[in-house]
Write a structure and sequence with these properties.
The structure holds two protein chains of two kinds. By secondary structure, chain A is mainly α. Chain A has 14 helices and two strands, in the order H-H-H-H-H-E-H-H-H-H-E-H-H-H-H-H. Chain A has a single domain, classed as Orthogonal Bundle (ABC transporter involved in vitamin B12 uptake, BtuC), CATH 1.10.3470. Chain A has helices spanning 7-26, 29-54, 62-78, 84-106, 112-131, 153-181, 183-193, 195-200, 205-231, 236-239, 242-255, 261-279, 287-301, 305-313, and strands at residues 141-142, 233-234. Chain B has a domain at 2-115 and 136-217. The N and C termini of chain B lie far apart (39 Å). Classes of the chains: A mainly alpha, B mainly alpha.
């Protein structure tokens, strides 16, 4: 396929591959933790970008799929003694199924109404899990420590989850690129520009939107399971933080919505910035305010994000930045 | 058990009026400029803290303090409009959502650093009123009365004054209003200030009977979304009615199931109304 001969995607994949490989070679615990979080956000931002960047539907509820998928996977591991691999897959599938059902309903809403509905769904999901006894209600669940033995002890289990997160991030990038370059992706972008016109031109908008929603929800389900498995316990407050949805939005905006590299780059940049702010004694307490200020400046002055700005400013870069 | 139900219905309704004012501000901003103000809750919380400091540090009566809070809320909104909203008013709605949300992050971030997130309360009481099985806190009664007064004042302002008519004209058709010589930027900034004034004032009213932290505002913001959607976004009367419905639900639901189910039902209802009657139960205006 011609799309795969473009250098852009390979540069992108090589970057993420190198990050993970370097971590594996150096074998340092702190580096692994940093990279795990970074790759997690790369995955979350890139998957949300399929809905938000390509299709133009802003979701404040991306974390619902992270939370519910993760809860499902965690439930299977901790209560049903499943292995991590099928549990993560089922977590992703449950998130995708939920997205399919929700999407049929709320994707009929356009613009700000859709965004509002996703805020409502996020709150409803958290409140529901808080009351849902099989998932432990407000106290949540935890993994019996013995479970980690199956994965070669706790340390080895941490490395295994890291490798899985790394692979997931790579797969998400490939999927994101494949969607963007496909006929289906073109349909999504047509919907983003003008949904009515897209439908007249023969794009089956309801189906395409729902499918985009399903794809973008599948990955957070897997990521959620991996994250919670590594954590060892789960509470509704951890799994459904509206804050995390918003941070993911900030990352996409920072890097450039609608591009493949943008969300990954934005996730890395935001994560670095936050780590710096959190560890610096001067800004520690103000990190949220600084993140807000950064977001405001981006929205007001470079709404296309870093990658979008570079592409517009330096046409030559359009060959390598996708 | 009607004996138990009646007080909670009355409490819920009284609270509903105050919820209505929070939603009124959100609805006004949406109605005039089609911006969902995601910093509404943060400003509500600022209203609570302003009342708190006026009361504890200067000994100002909370109901007198409301006037100062209203002025501060208006100025804050006016400035905020010019800094954060004016540039994105015609951009895709994502920009205004994120711009107002970033203001929310800034306010919450700075306030958390200064005030921490520990709960504050205002020790102020107006005694209580009893009638048969019914006992109503004086502060709640005052809050409800103030809320009704504010809603009436807003209605009068929008229909009886020059500026109010200009606001309605801009909400109706911004380009046409501009052609008729209405200074739209000034009117939009004024309306935004009016919306944040409502947020700050409702915060001031709530702070007299509930403990609060800087994060509490987000809770009322979420409720305001639910209310606006129930009553129809951009419909001021709907906002008050929606507030009453929500207050009533909060009063009645705990009689039948654990309190923790209230948000599930509220947000479930919210999504359902969005789906089946996106113009609200009363229809949008």
């Amino acid at each position: 396929m011609k799309a795969w001969r473009q250098p852009a995607i390979w540069i992108n994949l090589a970057l993420v591959f190198a990050l993970g490989a370097a971590t594996l070679l150096l074998r340092r615990d702190t580096l692994r933790e940093t990279m795990f979080t970074l790759l997690m956000y790369v995955g979350l931002a890139s998957s949300l970008n399929i809905l938000m960047g390509y299709t133009g539907y802003v979701s404040f509820g991306h974390i619902v799929f992270f939370g519910l998928g993760g809860y499902t996977g965690f439930y299977l591991i901790s209560q049903q003694r499943w292995s991590l691999y099928p549990a993560a897959l089922v977590g992703g599938l449950v998130a995708a199924l939920l997205a399919g059902l929700l999407g049929l309903a709320i994707l009929r809403l356009r613009g700000a109404y859709f965004a509002l509905a996703t805020i409502g769904i996020n709150e409803a999901a958290r409140a529901f899990v808080n009351n849902f006894q099989p998932f432990g209600g407000p106290t949540g669940m935890s993994i019996n420590f013995a479970v980690y033995k199956e994965y070669g002890g706790p340390t080895q289990a941490l490395w295994t989850t890291f490798i899985l997160m790394w692979l997931a991030a790579l797969v998400i990038l490939v999927a994101s690129y494949a969607v963007k370059r496909s006929r289906f992706g073109l349909g999504l972008m047509a919907i983003r520009e003008d949904e009515g016109a897209a439908m007249i031109m023969g794009v089956n908008a309801p189906r395409a939107k729902t499918l985009a929603f399903i794809i973008s929800a599948f990955f957070p389900g897997i990521i959620g399971t991996l994250f919670l498995f590594k954590n060892g316990n789960v509470e509704p407050g951890d799994a459904f933080r509206l804050q995390m949805s918003i941070e993911t939005l900030v990352m996409i905006m920072l890097g450039g919505q609608g591009t493949v590299l943008g969300p990954a780059l934005g996730a890395a940049a935001y994560q670095q910035l936050r780590t710096y702010l959190l560890t610096s004694p001067l800004f520690k307490n103000l990190h949220l305010a600084f993140a807000g200020l950064a977001l405001l400046l981006i929205v007001l002055f470079i709404p296309a994000g870093i990658v979008g700005w570079l592409r517009a400013r330096f046409p030559i870069l359009r060959r390598v930045l996708e | 058990m009607p004996g138990n139900l009646l007080p909670s219905i009355v409490d819920g309704l009284l609270l509903g009026f105050v919820y209505g004012v929070v939603a009124l501000g959100l609805s006004l901003i949406w109605g005039v400029m089609h911006v969902i103000n995601l910093s509404h809750g943060a400003i509500t919380a600022l209203g609570m803290f302003a009342t708190y400091f006026l009361f504890t540090a200067l000994g100002v009566n909370p109901y007198l303090g409301v006037l100062a809070v209203a002025a501060l809320g208006f100025i804050l909104g006016y400035v905020m409009y010019h800094i954060a909203v004016r540039r994105v008013i015609s951009a895709p709605y994502l920009s205004s959502l994120l711009a107002t949300f970033s203001v929310n992050m800034i306010i919450i971030g700075v306030a958390t650093a200064i005030l921490t997130t520990s709960p504050h309360t205002i020790n102020y009481s107006l005694g209580s009123l009893s009638a048969g099985p019914l006992t109503v806190q004086g502060t709640r009664l005052m809050a409800a009365a103030a809320a009704i007064l504010i809603a009436a004042a807003l209605q009068l302002f929008l229909y009886r004054t020059q500026r109010g008519k200009e606001i309605r004209a801009v909400a109706n058709n911004r380009a046409a209003a501009e052609l008729m010589g209405i200074p739209t930027t000034a009117v939009l900034a004024f309306s935004f200030g009016l919306g944040t004034l409502m947020a700050a004032v409702s915060g001031a009213l709530i702070s007299t009977f509930f403990p609060f932290t800087i994060l509490t505002g987000d809770l009322y913001q979420s409720k305001a979304f639910v209310i606006c959607v129930l009553g129809g976004l951009g419909n001021p009367v709907g906002a008050l009615v929606g507030g009453l419905v929500l207050g009533l639900l909060e009063g009645v639901i705990p009689a039948f199931m654990p309190v923790s189910w209230v948000p599930v039902l509220e947000f479930g209802l919210f999504v359902l109304v969005l789906l089946f009657r996106p113009t609200g139960l009363l229809g949008a205006k």
